[in-house]
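Our consortium's second objective concerns turning raw sequence data into structural hypotheses that experimental partners can test. To show how far this objective has progressed, the report includes one record in full. It was chosen at random from the queue rather than selected for favorable results. The single chain below, 495 residues long, was entered without modification.
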Amino acid sequence: MPRSALPDLATLRARWTPRLVRTEVLAGLVVALALIPEAIAFSIIAGVDPRVGLYASFTMAVVIAVCGGRPAMISAATGAIALVVAPLSREYGVEYLFAAVVLGGVLQIALAAAGVARLMRFLPRSVMVGFVNALAILIFTSQVPQLVGVPWAVYPLVAVGLVVIVGLPRLTRVVPAPLVAIVGLTVVTVTAAVAVPTVGDQGALPDTVPLPHLPAVPLTWETLRIVAPYALGVALVGLIESLMTARLVDDITQTGSDKTRESWGQGVANIVTGFTGGMGGCAMIGQTMINVKASGARTRLSTFLAGVFLLVLVVALGDVVALIPMAALVAVMVMVSVGTFDWHSIRPATLRRMPRSETAVMLTTVVVTVGTHNLAFGVGAGVLVASVLFANRVSRLVGVDRTVDDGGAVVYRVTGQLFFASSSELSTAFALDGDPDEVTVDLSGAHVWDASTVAVLEDLRRRYARSGRTLVVTGMNDDSRDRHERLAGHLGGGH
């Protein structure tokens, strides 16, 4: 990095003001409190001890704060990763899970080196909107079990928590509203002896720090065969969720981030997590929104402290944390879901102006993500539908204009983008029986993109040749000509 690009000491001192540090510290504390029940819940989904999820959240947050490319983004144990590794831990045991997490981290580093982050530019805006809306729905629905079959006191506590989170910022932003709601409701339930579900009811909290160890699995090809598919799932799901969350935070904060660094940073974090007895993880949209939107954090300090506070809370202050009513955390997560959802995208005025194809892509992403609880499936389905609809739309822009000059010469002028979805219609536009001995195809207004188009042009040439006539193709640009010369005559008849 050139010297001019490095901030001087005065700039750093001006940036790290007491107000900023206070914001980052309090944001980290709020996120840590919200991480505890989530990590325990995801551990249950993965079929492992709650300590495995809590250790993963600690190591992921601390390592990604140093290695990641998106400041203020929170990484920890997630439901998406839990769903991926659950069959492995259930069938082979937790040590195989640790091995899969380590290998998944290695694969993420390899994918980062291969430039996987650059693929983010192929994600349409409609997929991003669907991703955000689906996450908001999943965050909300994940809180429903905490509201069903519970004592009646839970409902007024949640309502009070919502009022505090919504109303307090209008009076002051000195202290994050979610933290006030959590502390206030805890004090009320403890002093009034209100019997409601608490964090302690979700599972045992760890009483020691995680210690490094090698996964206790045989170092054989059979072990690799078992863990490799799950490791690949951890790598892909983790990167998709992390990179899309990073892009969302970029938009919220109006700042850029290094997606390649984020990719390999996720890999390093998962390797460390696997070696310290964690279930693996990736970026968390809910906790990230708490950190960035609800608490106003903007730096790596909040991410780092979220992990540190989490460990301190569950190890040193586990008895106190266990008293926090789940109602307080439900109120926080409900408001996170409301703030995450893109309400503008479903307004009638927006839907009227938006092309139906864009709305279809957004809805596909939402439906598949919510239906499978798998962000990778939802994003993949959205991209697939977007690609098909885009190809269909572009294919309709191809035109073929047949002209006959005074001498009887026939010229077919083709315009548009010629690829598999559009070039197949070319053959029906040519009037073979009524054409003279020599016919010209002018492609100066078109572009040849693939082998399908070259195959169609070659088929037309052969059909004219069988009747003793000649087809001459002219006007190709350099890229189209190079592709045509490389492929013509080498595709086989009709292929």
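The partners drew two points from this record. Residues 142 and 333 are 9 Å apart (CA to CA). The beta strands are 75-76, 282-283, 399-404, 410-418, 438-448, 470-474. Both points have been shared with the crystallography group to help prioritize constructs.
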